[in-house]
Design brief:
Length: 278
């Protein structure tokens, strides 16, 4: 796709002079945005005092803004092209981010707290079948939609049920010794937290191999991952514009599955489809 866009840009502009106008807006705009983001790094990540941060970044913002404003004089000569591309990418990213927030809020509203679910099972124990079922949940105190669907349909639970939550820490890497935390909840239920750094490859299979070192061995032949696969339905409710909801639905359908992203063996994955109306 990148190659095709570049070829189309070169052929469409027809001359290096007009292409240079687009290039100037792109470069100066990137420099300006990078300088603005630098303020947040040195202020909130590095902890420098506010006057120093404003003075340092303000100096460079003034210079970059001068370059960018002068480049805008050539918007009609080709500078519109990178601005249009930036607007498209910005729209896609913000639509995905906002759509995820709405979908998560909808699931939380219709979900069930973990403590309430366990209390109901203690009062009326269901039939248990051999094996281990792992349900991935976004929040450690919530119940997976896949679990609720499976239990409502089949009326049975596995002997050992694990609620797995992936936590991405604000550090580059997490030591192997701190990768997994397991908490027994009673009645064959367990809460498992798996930690990764932001440059770690989220490999659930490799992380679960560490369970044996904690005395919590998992037999791959009797372990199943029951994951929820959501289909987004656009509606005129409060949220986003209808066209953005449809865009988010298309992005969701083409996104990688949780099993692929977290490197879960496909022969151990069972996906249960759900519909979310936003």
């Amino acid at each position: 796709m990148l190659l095709l866009v570049i070829i189309a840009a070169v052929l469409g502009f027809g001359s290096s002079t007009r292409l240079a106008s687009a290039y100037g807006v792109a470069v100066s705009g990137t420099m300006l945005v990078t300088t603005i983001l630098t303020f947040f790094v040195i202020r909130f990540a590095w902890g420098y005092n506010l006057p120093l941060c404003i003075a340092v970044t303000g100096f460079f913002v003034f210079i970059d803004a001068a370059f960018f404003s002068s480049s805008l004089l050539k918007v009609h000569e080709g500078g519109w092209f990178p601005l249009a591309l930036a607007a498209i990418v910005f729209t896609v990213i913000t639509t995905w981010h906002r759509g995820r927030e709405i979908a998560f809020a909808t699931q939380t509203k219709s979900g069930l707290p973990l403590a309430t679910f366990l209390e109901s099972l203690a009062r009326d124990p269901p039939h248990r079948v051999p094996g281990t079922a792992i349900f991935m949940v976004d929040h450690a105190d919530s119940v997976s939609r896949a679990l609720l669907q499976n239990f409502a349909c089949n009326k049975v639970l596995h002997e050992r049920v694990i609620f797995l939550t992936i936590v991405i820490r604000s550090v580059p890497g997490v030591p192997v010794s701190e990768r997994i935390a397991i908490e027994p909840l009673g009645g064959g239920f367990y809460r498992m937290l798996v930690y990764f750094g932001f440059i770690d490859r989220p490999d659930v299979t490799a992380a679960l191999d560490l369970c044996a070192q904690r005395g919590f061995a998992l037999d791959p032949a009797n372990t199943w991952f029951l994951l929820s696969r959501s289909t987004v339905i656009a509606s005129p409710k409060e949220g986003m514009a209808l066209w953005r909801e449809r865009l988010f639905g298309a992005m969701t359908r083409n996104a990688r599955t949780a099993g692929d992203y977290f490197n879960i063996p496909s022969d151990q994955v069972i996906e249960l489809g759900t519909k979310i109306e936003i």
